[in-house]
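ENTRY TYPE: paired fold submission
RECORD: A
CONTENT: sequence, then structure tokens
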Amino acid sequence: MADSKNRYNNGSNIFRPRARLMRAFGDELISNENVAVIELVKNAYDADATAVVIKFEGPLESDKGSMEVIDNGNGMSMQTILNTWLEPATINRIKNPRSERYNRRVLGKKGIGRFAVSRLSRSLSLFTRMKDAPKETSIYIDWSQFEDVDKYLDEIDIPWKEISPRCYKKGGYAEKVLQYSGGTGIEKNHGTMLKMTNLRSEWSDKEFKDLYNRLSRLVLPFKDSTIYDFDIFLDLPDAFSKFSGHVHPPESLSKPMYLISGCVNENGYYNFDINIGEKPENIRGKFQLEDKQAPTCGPLTIELRGWDRDSKSIQEMGMKVTQMREDLDAAAGISIYRDGFRVFPYGEPGNDWLRLDIRSRQNPTMNMANNQLVGYVIISSDSNSQLEDQTNREGFLENRAVSDLKELIKLTLKELEKRRYAYKRRNVDSKEPSGGIFQGFNIDRIRLLVDTEYSQDKQLTNLIAATEKDLQFKIEKVQEVLSRYRRLATLGQLIDGVIHEGRTPVTVISQQARLIKRELEHSENEECRGLAKKTASILSQTETLSKVFKRIAPFGGRKRGKPVAVVLENIIRDGFLIFEDDLNKLNIEVDIPNTKTKVTADSSEIQEVIVNLLRNSMYWLKKVPDDERSIVVQIDRISENELHIIFSDSGPGVDPSDKDMIFEPYFSTRNDGVGLGLATVDEIVTDYYGGEVILLEEGPLDGASFKVILRRRV
């Protein structure tokens, strides 16, 4: 007989949730009242409704008033009510992912619509009838029962009954409310009505404005062949009548200044129509993601509508400035629509999920901000299965597919921004003289006139000479300040490289110093043992640091020095050494001549030219296969006063449509580019070396090839 002390009690049990779990879930899963209303509208869509009316009756204060959501959908049978609607987290929609009548891809998979009802009111009366059904089913729920801390969920009684049709019948209440929609041919003898009484929160002008804006973007604002008709109406008390009626986006948003629309397939190939000005354009191609992999999302349909928010541009459209800006503020952002319905919170006010504002601040001339865009990205659940909802239905789970989606949208936006930039450039008379920003700062025409007509007036000719000298002195001062600012801008881009190359030597120095200290503390007159070797290691690492800092010293913002005799190849090589680790990681083969071309120059200026060209090439070389990445630098002295540097890479090259703009400040074809790299190169070469930078049609390599011509200090 076994010892009783060794006996174990065995058994099993079940979870028995408290009734208050329903309320807790409602508050956790539904973040606010407007989200709750939207969930109920989605339920109407899933039920094949073609119209849904949201009706409020006052007083709209806490624990007062009522709300009704009335649709003309399929309705529910008594069995559906008892076995599906009263079963939270039902798997019905998992088993049946499409609607019965219109084969819509259903939106409410997780069965949380009833939580939305509990979030809105204290009690619910539900009336529903299926088409041609002889009976109408109703249930009543008092949500306060679920706040009883002593009750279990299975102890809550939900009364139901089948009755002769009252709500959904000819001349019934549902018909009268649905008639409010003004639609003709809308069936009204079947559907579901949710009457919620004793509202949990107060509804004011602010809440209704927010609700209207959200609902106006809930369904695709333009008709799509895959989307069945579905209209939303608000029926509100007189105090809020301005929000009553058919819910739709403002008319102003149907007339964008800039428009790109089309599709991107699952392999990244795109086909877009672009409308800017009077010349529509069609573009086709393939987007290359940063990691060169095929997108894990797609296909996508994308439409981006853009506006300039300045008064002049808005007035030229014939719009009122204040109204247009208000409409944009309410609707701005890029929204995602899955199977015809919004995925929240993408595109909500304040939800700059693509970080477009940060991108715009980096380059406001080129990049558009979030409040300048109203965008629609259309996906389907079937072909974008990796874009999965979070449990609370507000956003996708962060994964590779979401990252790819963001990148594809920004690449699409860049195509629009490039053409917007070109359009505005064509339509603005530039006052800036060609040949560099300082080319027009002279008094040559005045001096010529004085020398010709007033050569005898010594006072005037002396004044002209003094003025010209003073102007030249001030130009040099301005150039000096600009030179410092350019170095500071470049220095900011090099910080990561400094940290990367400097951290390891500093760590080694620290470790070796600790070892020396430990040995010295335990030494018995044998200090020399191992000390020399460790000291040599410290000196070696210190030398490494010195080389790194020496390379970046020209970018420290120091005052520009007098040009001195230097070897051009050494300066170029130092510029490449700054990015040695990056070049190795990217497997870029570099060919720099071993000649020794002597020039008179400021090494920091030449390094700025090389660094900016190099950073540009490294970015674009990521777009080609690893074994095809090369950079070639060639130097050719044409004469005593002219020298050429050819900088060529094997990247994808420059799009012919962009070649006239690549040297302009802020123009960039990179997703998050600032657009100052090539502009800086051009200004340095033009202003300080009397030269020019030319994009070659052909070069040593098949990608982008630039010829840098130096005519001074060489």
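RECORD: B
CONTENT: sequence, then structure tokens
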Amino acid sequence: MAKKRKRPDRRAPAAAGAPRKPVWTPRASQLAVVFVAAVAARLAVISDLSELPLFRTPQLDPHEFLNWAQSIARGGAAWPELPSHAPGYPWFLGALLWAFGESIGAARFVQALLGGLLCAMVADAAARIWNRRAGWCAGLLLAFCGPAIYVDVSLLAEGLMTLLLVSALWSLLRLRAGPWTAFAAGALVGAAAFTRATALVVLPLVLIYVATVPAWPRKWASSGLALLAAAAFVIPGAAAASRAAACFVPLQAFSGLNLYMGNSPALGGVPAGRIGGSWDRLFAEPVALGFEDSRSQDRFFVRKTVAEVRSDPRSWLRVLGRKVLRLIQRDEIRETHSYHFFEANSRLLRRLPGFGLFFPLGLAGILLGRPSDGHRRGLLIGYLLLISASCVLIIVSSRYRAPLYPVLATFAGAAADEALRVARERRWKRLALMAAVAAAGTAASFAGGHSPSRNLAEEWALTGSSLELEGREVEALGAYERALALDPAQSFALDAMGRQSMRRGDWQAAESVFTRAVQVDPEYHMSQYHLGYALLRSGDSAGARHHFEKAAAAAPDYAPAREGFAAMLLDEGRLRSAVYESYAAVAHGEQAPSAWMTLARVQGAVGLPWRGVEFARRAAQAGPENPDAWLLLAMLSGEAGDTAACRDAVERAEALAGRDSPPVAFQRALLLRREGRLVESEDELRRLLAAHPDFEPARQALQP
């Protein structure tokens, strides 16, 4: 009887030196199911969150991304003056808005499709390294991962950056080894860094992988191509950002501030600067010391970080240890917003797993999974280590660790596959070992927590701001009250409630609310400024000046505080100090017409109307719809002897405010006097006083 031919072992390693070909290949139907499931989950979350004002009308970083993207879609500048973010995501979002008529919903739909593509790539990678069942598990786990879904459908850069990074890994795992595959991987990492600079930590991994895999041909040439491809994105991007900021910027600003927040023993390794006094205290320090540009501020924070670490290295090591624990905990640490706010307001998100499941399963997969290719597994482990190191060495937050989820999903899928296999084979000892590893990971993940990220007062305060932008002031007031119920010291909510009272004309209530805001958070510049403004309205000039000074000290780059202080000094006759403060206001608010107007008034008061004309003209050009700017230009032009410019400015003001406006009529009378038409000037002043007997400047002008 002929012997039965033995079936080859599909898990057997390839011969030494031979190219290793993947045995397990995912079926197209498998990837299609994962893709559809992932897209459906993301669209369901979009539907859930569409009624949430903070999702519908973004604040903070999403608001900045959206503004930049809308500017690009409308043909505006591709770079802001201070690029606080890398340009990749705003350009991508701007292209979507341009293509879909500025529909944010359409842009989110495209992002949901890309999230589905990411899940399909993860399923494909897991299937090729382990087997098809591992691919199923990995793809579906990521498809229904709550934090990953939130990032994919939000106006945040991390979704695009993670897709690009995983695409780089997938190209190395999936495509044929060679220089062009290395080039593609390097270009994808460069594009990811163009989206968020921290993605550059993955570039050394790509270069090492290409140079060390035995089957890879022309290793050094391939590594060089990968490096050049990444540089083609990073170097031009850094150069353009530096030109826009007028100083060197490595793709995006505030890297030094993030390094300081993440490593200062006093701040705990998390984004400690929140809206209000804590952010003002952090950001104002270098500005108050004269560090005006982004580069010098970053240097200041880097040097301060180094100095604090050197002075107390033990405390710094304790901070690193806490960051390691926070990196693996189940809580999503707030950066821009708290994920837990959106989780609480979505029926689907609050039922979906997060890091509390992914870390234990991923740990079991890393330690006990059986890959068919060690080099590929090493690539994924290296990625996890580098992204984790970037979090621990810079800052730990939900957004910083978001790129971990896709690769953790591959190992979690491998762990699920291995558990099913050993259970079917009744290998109870190995199954118990896997359960023990997963239990240890679960205990570590649940051992700590970050209670500030679960206090949602800040998100409710920002929800009120979103509702105000939508014109729903009554609902906004309810959101502010809800924020204060969660945290009575929420100064942003208090300040917003005070501003609502100002708009209603209830200055007494506004003063009371602003006073409370200053008491709970004396370093918040907005509350100090608004209290000063309210006191000025009530006639308390000394109190107003005190709070304007406090606001300017808390936020030296906040132009309105400088303007208010300059105006107070001008009224008091302290002209030299008024000049200094008005110049400071302009330096920190060049596009604000009110800053130019304050400086123009000060120049006129010190007897330099020809200088004031220049600043008044800038104010009128920056705010051409403001009649006060044109009236100021008319007054200063007349005092400087330029009657033609004075007449033009009076006519512009008259077109905006009307011929019967008392300030317009008064400036027209002064113009007639300067032109030598004294009788007409007096007639104009008398008509003005007949219509407005209390208009004192006209009465004084008629006196001999």
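NOTES ON RECORD B: The CA atoms of residues 203 and 574 lie 58 Å apart. DSSP finds 37 helices and no strands in the chain.
STATUS: closed
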